Amino acid sequence: MQLSESLTAAYNAQVKLEFESSFVYLQMAADFELRSLPGFSRWMRIQSGEEYTHAMKFIDFVIARGGRLELLALDKPAPTPETVVGVFEAALRHEQRVTRAIHDLYTRALEERDYASLPLLQWFVNEQTEEEATVSTILERLRMVGEDRSGILFLDRELGQRAGNPGGGAAEAESAAEA
Does CATH place domain 5-178 in 1.25.10.10? Predict the structure, then answer.
């Protein structure tokens, strides 16, 4: 069953949001690098790569379902907040925005009885639950240490151990296409 025009448009909007998410995290990563916080930078670069992979999953789905992919212009990321806590508060707000968009897409697919969309969208519902929980945990730990530099450096070192490819992009897109 081919995607409807309205679902195709909704998926194209989601592709845009996922690429914007990648840019948001890449901007944050660059700003952490300038602040001499390489662990936070690595974490954000890996997150950027994951968001790129998510966009590619949606692109592959649209194409496989016979929808017309239309890449939309991306919005410029907002300036990165001054504090580490502020950056992760912004990241959480962004993840919540993505979650709302996924839920809206799921609702639209249900309304249109496009049951072939549901497994993909359920995967994203689960992924967003995990994303929000991870960012919330980091944020709570950052709030615990406050402005204590040794605590921030400890968390920087810990987050720098995140597994994944900080270069992001192609390798993740290939593995996502296989999933």
Answer: no
